[in-house]
Design a protein that fits this description.
heterodimer, A: 326 residues, alpha/beta, eight-stranded mixed sheet, 32% helix, B: alpha/beta, 10 helices, globular
């Protein structure tokens, strides 16, 4: 990946959700700052991991990139086409090229539809293939995810969680996308099934040249599947770098704490290592702390951290971090 | 020394429209005083059902404990009537559930819920219960406990709610704490807090802990012994170091190979276990894991393997020696 081509550019992206009060006449009384000015690039063919605690804005980021939420401000360029201001016709055309795999395979498939209808829906929406060809394409898609073509007329409830996730993946692949946002695609699955689905995602990436934004909270899996990793805290990015660099040389105190909280499946190692246990919970994104958002939980915070927002800077080549002390 | 809690040949079934679900199929294990036992398995393997039966919390019908004994301090809990078991449940054996959102009552204050068990079991006054509750919240690390006693569950975050659940479970100084996936719904940073807290309290109170989880990494941090369950059977039981160093059941072996680690980089594809977990409606004549097992021999299909010793303090239920591929 020396000759790296940017596929998705996220520039100063903001997504606020209004907090309203009142019954008939709703007025805005504040906003949940789910994503508060983040910028990063996603390169063609890579898997970029996006990690953080629940409520840090990682899912919102993924959905806003795909324009499932319209951003409050900022720009998103997909293959150099601006999505935020694009007309709905143009956007629909672009949507073919970017898809999503959801976390909960029980909620993301319509339980009244057959597998064939679920997987062929993107083909119908985008007018791809018709008649016999479409059925063939659906069979081909199911074959890619190792679901037997005999299952075409079955309903989602007849499948296990892992199989449903495969159907969700087949649907995401239907319109031949280049970019897929995988929103915690394995966290709802059993341990013995997780590896199957991860391997499938990797194989599909190799064959189809896909680019992934892999949203996850399981850092062990992220270390395995991602090329680069971005760490989010309370709506902002705190660190972004190559996988090996992040895991062997984390610079932000939050990343360090997050890594040390991940249990290691080896009693000897896990019991002998020193742990940074973070105190308390993340604050509310409706009213984030001033200065560095991490300062109330940070073990090395100074006066400067309480007052000034740390700059997002490239401290080392390809290693971005937002911390005054790094 | 006899064990604090002994489960003997426990069998639990559920009657459903689709047929009988064989949730737990004759499992036995002991828990010693002050010991931490980890029970690991995937969803539907019977790990929760096995401890719910200990607490007398299996809804009957559809559930039914068809066989077995649960001996606590010389008495069979399964033979007790409701009144007797209430004296033990919540007092001597306490439980923390997976989802702290649904296991607290949303319309009662935290203080009220915390004092309830204490007033009932310890026969103390409301005032005493309140001051004990403040102390308990302090122990589990909730700041400003006096103020928070009057608050409702929705005013607490997920991690804080789980702390309240732990405080509640500890309120009568139980000798056994059963924790059913207590950190599954929580973030890793909060999980680390809860694990550290449990370790500290366990050691201070000399309490036995049964920690149920699907996450082998979490259990590596705090268990002394470990039981691996699959399809309602115990497939492997040994001490925690032995299990990770020298796993001998094919299921444990492949499970350990399939999980990535945060401290190591794996460049090849992850090892997988083919197929899907069984549905427990049909009891196969042989080993339940055989269809997914890469080591299976003819015998595996016809006869259910019994748990047997394969070393000091190490038992597996398998017909095959995974190191040689031959029959044990």
């Amino acid at each position: 990946m020396n000759d790296r081509q940017v596929l998705v550019q996220v520039k100063e992206l903001k997504k606020y959700f209004p907090i309203t009060q009142g019954i008939l006449f709703q007025r805005e009384v504040g906003a949940v700052k789910a994503v508060d000015e983040i910028s990063f690039d996603i390169y063609k063919g890579e898997t970029l991991g996006l990690v953080g605690e629940s409520g840090c804005g990682k899912t919102t980021t993924g959905r806003t990139i795909l324009q499932l939420y319209r951003p409050t401000s900022g720009n998103i360029l997909f293959d150099n086409v601006e999505l935020v201001t694009a007309s709905s016709k143009k956007l629909r055309n672009m949507r073919k090229r970017m898809q999503m795999i959801f976390q909960d395979p029980y909620a993301s498939l319509n339980s009244r539809w057959t597998v064939s209808r679920i997987v062929s829906e993107p083909l119908r929406v985008h007018n791809l293939h018709s008649g016999e060809d479409r059925t063939k394409r659906v069979e081909e898609l199911l074959d890619m995810v190792s679901i037997s073509a005999q299952c075409l007329n079955r309903y989602p409830h007849e499948f296990s969680g892992g199989q449903r996730q495969r159907i969700g993946i087949a649907r995401a692949l239907a319109s031949e996308p280049e970019f897929i946002v995988c929103d915690e695609p394995i966290s709802a699955l059993d341990v013995s099934i997780q590896a199957q689905v991860v391997n499938l995602l990797e194989e599909l990436q190799d064959h189809l040249g896909l680019t992934y934004l892999f949203i996850a909270h399981d850092l062990s899996m992220v270390r395995h599947i991602c090329n680069r990793v971005a760490v989010m805290y309370l709506g902002v990015l705190v660190e972004l770098t190559d996988r090996d660099e992040l895991f062997s040389n984390p610079l932000h105190p939050y990343t360090k704490a997050l890594l040390s909280a991940v249990p290691i499946p080896d009693p000897k190692i896990t019991r002998s290592r020193k742990r940074v246990v973070l105190e308390g919970d993340p604050p509310s994104p409706a009213n984030p702390p001033a200065g560095c958002r991490f300062h109330p939980r940070c073990p090395i915070a100074t006066e400067q951290c309480k007052r000034e927002v740390p700059e997002w800077r490239e401290l080392k080549p390809r290693h971005w971090v937002a911390c005054w002390k790094a | 020394m006899s064990a604090l809690l002994q489960i003997k040949d426990l069998q639990v079934q559920f009657q459903t429209i689709e047929g009988t679900v064989h949730a737990v199929n004759g499992i036995s294990y002991d828990l010693d005083k002050g010991q931490t036992l980890g029970i690991v398995g995937e969803s539907g393997c019977g790990k929760s059902v096995s401890v719910l039966s200990v607490m007398g919390l299996i809804p009957e019908p559809p559930g039914e404990i068809t066989k077995g004994e649960v001996i606590y301090r010389g008495k069979d809990l399964l033979k007790m009537d409701k009144k007797e078991i209430r004296k033990i449940r919540g007092k001597e054996i306490a439980m923390v559930f997976q989802d702290p959102m649904t296991s607290l009552n949303p319309v009662l204050t935290i203080g009220r819920q915390l004092s309830e068990a204490q007033i009932l079991h310890l026969k103390i006054s409301k005032e005493e219960a309140t001051s004990r509750s403040i102390e308990l919240l302090n122990i589990v690390g909730i700041p400003k406990p006096e103020e928070r006693l009057g608050e409702y569950p929705h005013q607490f975050s997920g991690g804080m709610r789980q702390r309240v659940m732990i405080a509640m479970a500890l309120s009568c100084q139980p000798s056994i704490l059963i924790a059913d996936e207590p950190t599954t719904a929580l973030d890793v940073t909060i999980q680390a807090q809860i694990v550290e807290l449990t370790k500290k309290l366990r050691d201070q109170m000399d309490m036995a802990v049964i920690w149920i989880t699907h996450d082998l990494a979490v259990i590596a941090e705090l268990a002394d012994r470990i039981i691996v369950m699959y399809a309602g059977f115990i497939v492997e039981e040994t001490d925690i170091f032995q299990l990770f160093e020298n796993p001998l059941h094919p299921y444990t072996l492949s499970l350990l190979k399939s999980i990535p680690r945060v401290d190591k980089r794996i460049d090849e594809r992850l090892a997988t276990i083919s197929g899907y977990p069984p549905n427990n409606l049909i009891m196969p004549p042989g080993c339940s894991f055989a269809p997914r097992c890469s080591h299976h021999i003819d015998r595996c299909w016809v006869e259910v393997p019994k748990l047997k010793n394969v070393g000091s303090n190490h038992q597996i239920a398998c017909w095959v020696d995974v190191t040689t591929g031959k029959e044990l």
